[in-house]
Design goal:
The protein is an alpha/beta fold and 515 residues long. It has helices at residues 3-8, 22-29, 46-62, 92-98, 101-117, 148-164, 195-211, 237-247, 262-265, 270-280, 291-306, 312-330, 342-355, 388-395, 397-405, 415-418, 436-449, 463-466, 481-491, and strands at 11-13, 35-38, 69-72, 122-123, 168-169, 171-174, 216-219, 223-224, 228-232, 253-255, 285-287, 357-361, 373-377, 409-412, 425-430, 453-457, 472-475.
C-alpha cells in the first residue's frame, strides 16, 4: 500500500449537498480517503441516500480503493440525520427510563438494519457518557443515564445487537463527556476528576463495551489532567493508546470526534491536530469542515509519514485494523429490507410507551381534564445537536396527536397569541437543552396559567431544576414521533406512564423516581 493510501484511508470527510461533489471526488481519487460522514445537509430522502451511497461506492471502486466507510450520527431521540421515511427510536435516556436491555438491543438492531438498507455501514452511536453533571450542555438525553452500571448494561446491549446486524458502532465520547459543563463544539472542556474516580464513573461503560466486543470507539476533545495535563483525549497517547489499547485491551478502530470543533480549531492548526491524533493512536480522523482544511490535514499526515514522524509500524497496524473492520462491515451486501417498515415503527412506539415518565403531578392534571386545551412548543435555537425548526416541527406533532384523542385542542406556535386568552389546559412542549430563553418562556406560562400548565419535557428533564415550582411535568426524553405519541396518549388518559427517571434531579428526586 502506498503512503498516499496508507494515510488517506485514515480519514473520513464530510461534504456539501445531496450528491457527490467535485471536491469530494478529488478527496476520494487523489486524497485516497477511507470514508465519508453524512449530515442533514446531505439528506433529502431515503431513496436519495440509497442512490448517494451507491454512487460513492462506485466512485471508490473506480478509483481503485476498497469499499468506503459510510458513516452517520443516528442516535435516536434528538440527534438523527435520517428522519422522514426512517424509523427514529426514542433517545438513549428514554431507553434508560424503560430500563430494559432488550429495548436497547431492539433500537440498535433495527437502526442498523435500516442503515444497511441505505448503504450506511458505520453509526456514530451509542453515547456511553455517564451524564453526571446536570449542567452538561451537550449530552443530556443522549446518555442512557447517570449510573455507570446502567449505562454499561444498556450500551453493551445496543452495541452487540447493532454490530450483529452488520453496522459498526463507535461508542462515544471516550473516555467520557458526561461530567463537563462545557460543549466541546464551542470550547475545550477540562474534567478534573482523579484517576480512580474517572475509571469508576466515566471509563467503566467503555471498559465494559470493549470487554463485550465493541469494534469502534470515538474519542472526545476534553482535557483530563489526571491522565494527560497537556492534550485533549483525541490528541493524547496516554489516553488513546495507554488507557484504551493497553489497559482496556481495545483491538478495534478508534475515531476522533469532528476535528472542526472549536475545542480543536481554536488551539491547533488542522494539519498539526490531525498528525497529533494519529501519533496518539487514533485510527481514523474525522476531517469535517472546509475543503482546504481537509487537504491540510491529509497533506500534513502524508509529510509526517514520509519523514518518519508517524511510526511505520503504527501505520501498518492501523491499516490492518481498518482492513479487518472494513471486511466485516463495509464489504457485505445490504439487506433487502425497507427503511421505516411498519413493524419497526411499532417497536419504537412500544419502547416510547414504556419510557415516558410522570415526574410530577401535584395538580392532578394528568390525564388532562375536559376543556379548552392549547399545545405550545417552546423550542429555541441553542445547540448544534439539532435545528430549532426540526425540534419545533417534531414537538408540535404532540398537538396533532392529542387533537386526534381529545376534543377542543388548539396547536400554537406563538406565546404572545395565547397568554391573553382563556384556556382550561396549557400544554408546553419544551425542547430546550439548557437555554435560559426556554426557561423564561416556561416561567411566563406558569405565572399566567399556574396549575393549568402541564410541561412535557422533550429535552432534558433537568429543566425542572430551573423551575422547581412547576406542578405538572411529564418527561418524554425527546421530540421524536414515538415519544410525542406516547405523551399524547398519557395526556389523554389512553396510556399509564411506566418509565422512571434514569437520572437524579438533585434536591428534587432521586434516580428511579416516578410520581
Amino acid at each position: 500500500m502506498s503512503t498516499a493510501d496508507l494515510i488517506g484511508q485514515r480519514f473520513v470527510v464530510d461534504f456539501a449537498g445531496p450528491e457527490v461533489t467535485a471536491d469530494l471526488e478529488r478527496l476520494i481519487r487523489e486524497g485516497r480517503v477511507g470514508g465519508v460522514i453524512l449530515f442533514v445537509k446531505n439528506v433529502r430522502s431515503v431513496s436519495q441516500v440509497r442512490t448517494l451511497t451507491a454512487d460513492l461506492q462506485r466512485l471508490a471502486a473506480d478509483a481503485g480503493l476498497p469499499p468506503l466507510l459510510i458513516t452517520i450520527d443516528q442516535e435516536g431521540g434528538l440527534v438523527n440525520r435520517l428522519i422522514d421515511g426512517f424509523t427514529v427510536f426514542p433517545s438513549a435516556m428514554a431507553l434508560g427510563a424503560s430500563g430494559r436491555a432488550a429495548d436497547a438491543a431492539t433500537a440498535g438492531r433495527i437502526t442498523s438494519v435500516e442503515l444497511r438498507a441505505l448503504g450506511v455501514n458505520v453509526n456514530h452511536a451509542p453515547v456511553l457518557d455517564v451524564n453526571s453533571n446536570a449542567e452538561n450542555p451537550v449530552i443530556g438525553i443522549r446518555a442512557f443515564g447517570d449510573d455507570p452500571a446502567d449505562v454499561a448494561r444498556l450500551g453493551v446491549a445496543y452495541i452487540q445487537a447493532a454490530q450483529g446486524a452488520g453496522v459498526l458502532t463507535t461508542a462515544k465520547h471516550f473516555p467520557g463527556h458526561g461530567a463537563t459543563p462545557v460543549d466541546s463544539h464551542l470550547d475545550l472542556p477540562v474534567v478534573t476528576k482523579d484517576p480512580e474516580r474517572l475509571r469508576r464513573e466515566d471509563v467503566f461503560p467503555f471498559a465494559e463495551a470493549v470487554r463485550a466486543g465493541a469494534d469502534g470507539i470515538m474519542s472526545t476533545h476534553i482535557v483530563f489532567p489526571a491522565l494527560d495535563a497537556m492534550r485533549p483525549a483525541s490528541l493524547s497517547a496516554q489516553i488513546m493508546t495507554a488507557l484504551l489499547r493497553h489497559e482496556l485491551g481495545f483491538s478495534g478502530v478508534s475515531f476522533t470526534d469532528s476535528m472542526a470543533m472549536k475545542a480543536i480549531t481554536d488551539r491547533w492548526p488542522r494539519g498539526t491536530a490531525a498528525v497529533a491524533a494519529l501519533q496518539a493512536g487514533i485510527d481514523v480522523v474525522l476531517a469535517c469542515g472546509r475543503h482546504d482544511a481537509q487537504w491540510e490535514s491529509i497533506e500534513a499526515a502524508r509529510r509526517a509519514a514520509e519523514d518518519g514522524t508517524l511510526d511505520p509500524a503504527g501505520l501498518r497496524a492501523a491499516a490492518d485494523r481498518i482492513a479487518r473492520i472494513r471486511m466485516r462491515y463495509a464489504s457485505a451486501g445490504a439487506p433487502d429490507e425497507a427503511a421505516g417498515a411498519e413493524d419497526h415503527r411499532r417497536l419504537a412506539q412500544e419502547i416510547a410507551d414504556r419510557a415516558i415518565t410522570l415526574v410530577r403531578n401535584r395538580a392532578e392534571r394528568i390525564p388532562l381534564p375536559a376543556g379548552r386545551t392549547v399545545v405550545l412548543s417552546t423550542a429555541v435555537d441553542e445547540s448544534e445537536t439539532a435545528a430549532s425548526g426540526d425540534r419545533m416541527a417534531s414537538a408540535l406533532r404532540l398537538g396533532d396527536e392529542l387533537a386526534e384523542l381529545m376534543s377542543d385542542v388548539t396547536v400554537a406556535t406563538d406565546l404572545g397569541k395565547i397568554v391573553n386568552q382563556s384556556w382550561d389546559n396549557v400544554v408546553a412542549v419544551n425542547v430546550s437543552w439548557s437555554s435560559s430563553q426556554g426557561t423564561q418562556m416556561l416561567q411566563t406560562l406558569y405565572s399566567k396559567f399556574g396549575k393549568r400548565l402541564v410541561v412535557v419535557g422533550a429535552g432534558n428533564p433537568y429543566e425542572l431544576l430551573r423551575i422547581p415550582s412547576l406542578d405538572t411535568y411529564l418527561a418524554a426524553y425527546g421530540p421524536d414521533p414515538a415519544s410525542m405519541r406516547a405523551a399524547a396518549r398519557v395526556l389523554s388518559g389512553r396510556l399509564d406512564p411506566a418509565g422512571r427517571l434514569p437520572v437524579a434531579l438533585p434536591g428534587l428526586y432521586p434516580r428511579g423516581h416516578a410520581a
